[in-house]
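Q: Could you write out the predicted structure for this multi-component system? I'm mainly interested in how the pieces pack against one another.
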Amino acid sequence: MRVLTRVTAWTAASAGLLAVVALASATIGPVSISLPNVALAALDALAVPVSASVSLRDAALPALGGLPWVAVDLGYVSPLDFDVPGTQQYIVGELRLPRIVMGATVGASLAISGAVMQGFFRNPMADPSIVGVSSGAAVGAVAAITAPTVVVVGVQPAAFLGALVAAFTVYLVATENGRTPVATLLLAGVAIQTLLGAFTSFLIVHSGRSIREAMYWLMGSLHGSRWHEAEVALPVVVLGSVVLLAYARDMNVLLAGEEDAHALGVEVERTKRLLLAVASVVTAAAVSFAGAIGFVGLIVPHAVRLVVGPDHRVLLPVSAFAGGAFLVTADTLARSTASELPVGIVTAFVGAPFFLYLLRDREVHAL
Amino acid sequence: MTLDVSGVDVELAGTQILSDVSATVSDGRLVGVVGPNGAGKSTLLRAMNGVVEPCAGTVLVDGDDVHELPSKAASRRIATVPQDTHVSFEFTVRQTVEMGRHPHQPRFGRDDDPEAVDRAMERAEVSQFADREVTSLSGGETQRVLLARALAQDTPVLLLDEPTASLDVNHQIRTLELVRGLADSDDRAVVAAIHDLDLAARYCDELVLVADGEVVDAGSPRSVLTPEAVRNAFDARVAVGTDPATGAPTVTPLPDCEGRDDDDDDLDARVHVLGGGDSAAPVVRDLVDAGAEVTVGPVVDGDTDHETARRFGVDCVTVQPFESPRGAAEATARDFVDASDAVVAPAEAADWGVNDDLRARADQCVVVGEGAGGPRVAAGDVASAVAAVSEPGERLAVADGGGGTGRDDDSDDGESGADGSGAGDAD
């Protein structure tokens, strides 16, 4: 089967690229570690969940009087144990790898949802935050940072909630009689983003001494990523991506226009709702941990589309891996600078000129 | 499988687009939907394929309401070739045609008929650009790709919205022959919205004439395409004739009567036009245009006069080339002349003795065009001249003033003009 061959080949190639970039990135840092040692340390750090226990806990929401929720605790076992110096093992396994895995996860989620949104909106300027996810997350995060007494949850849950509330609001505003016209959705997204942007600015103006932390979040950073963050983000992104991949062919048909898609057997409104919801959750999971990292979701799908064509069956998986590789590379640059830069600055520095190049040279505007 | 539309009302954005539309399309039938722009043809097709939900009425396909069926099930029964051929994103032709297989493919699994795409591409004659990007094709080629996509859907019912709109004349015919074949040999039920009334009449078993969101008439092309019905629906004046090559009705638009004399379009007279020498054609057109009931003849079979008469659906006496017009043709022509209010003799009409005799029989005769005898009625004024003379009791004013009498002026009124080919007298 031609399609299956193409999908497999491209996916394997892009996954390989991500693996190479990840390993190379792990060698770079204040302490240089040789590639073989990195590889061995990475294998050492490999842990497989072998046990799971479910427990009922109270959420840390004193204002609500403690909501009970179900927590799943996984027990991990590391099956491999190579002879790597302890410091190097620690640096790779506990400092660099979590950050690289987080970078790959965030990059993949932004790129795959960017590809979905561009196809969904049939608009080359669409990116994952088009329906207000990023600005919603920003309001949540900045509110949690600047007003911790009012917003009692942590920065990440606040950002995640803010993202979903914003996306849901945009969807509700744009929906009438069970139909959500794409153009209305786009405009509602722009309007809500502007409103939320104003709200974020307001919070920052009144933030006092926490302004630096808020700005840092807004610029997007993977600094200080830990395994427990990846443990939450990675499953969400992987599950969401699997759902999106299952709808790759429907997305192809949707590109022909909604009426044609309906005539070709796609449940248009249901599919749109699902794509929008899953892409929003996947994006929200990424931005709530890493902040609003721009340009990854815009540029990576474009670049990938130029290479592999518009077929979502190839485009989506390749975009995910390429997005991961791109963000890991950008983050490696960010942390290699003298005073560590937020990675959002690096992606914008690299991404904006690249996008302009695409625009002038490759007729992306005719997408 | 039958497509059955009954009592469908459609409202879009608060505007009633279709009201109480009913139509039935059965296997092996090609039904054309015709009507002016904005009549609701496309909306009717969109209601048929389930894209637009009617606010009243039902669309049944094989007994099931198309709006109740899941989208996938509905699109295994009905395929649509859209009018808008704009395709964004650079899919190849093959990838585009493969989308037609979507309703047959489970989400995780394989197509049960992997050959369908190749067959559809071959049938729509797009195989040669299977690996080209759709965006690089011309509008006509894209339209055939979309037809191939609909064929790949392999449905018993096929809807086409203006399938020939952006095709050249060759591909118009080839596409409609293909569509005809889909009804005839594949036994599919086919509905096509077609702009071109001639093509619609030629290829469809049945026409549905839609105007202002209502079905004005439905039935055989001949019965639907009457000048009155077309005039009411399109607000355009037409003549309906017969295509000599195919025998199908042809519809020829006439110039709008506005700006012309008011009485032009209600010339309530029966006029016989003498022919031969390709002279009658413009006169016939003007008189039909003016609303007269026209007969023509004798004319030579197959010449321009004859073609024109046929195109305008005008009764016509013909003779074979090089055959004498005397005999049966003359007798019929004589009957036509006797039944007419006036006879029009183009100055360049054939130099036949029969024409002279016929003119002699006429109560009123108008000579058109410049002959040796000097100017008579100018070609553009024939209708008003006929109007003048066909009034009861009125004399032939025009010929009086202009033409004088011809060499062979033997009409009983003594007032008809000369035929031009003769040696007219000097005035």
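A: Regarding packing and overall arrangement: The first helix of chain B runs from residue 41 to 48.
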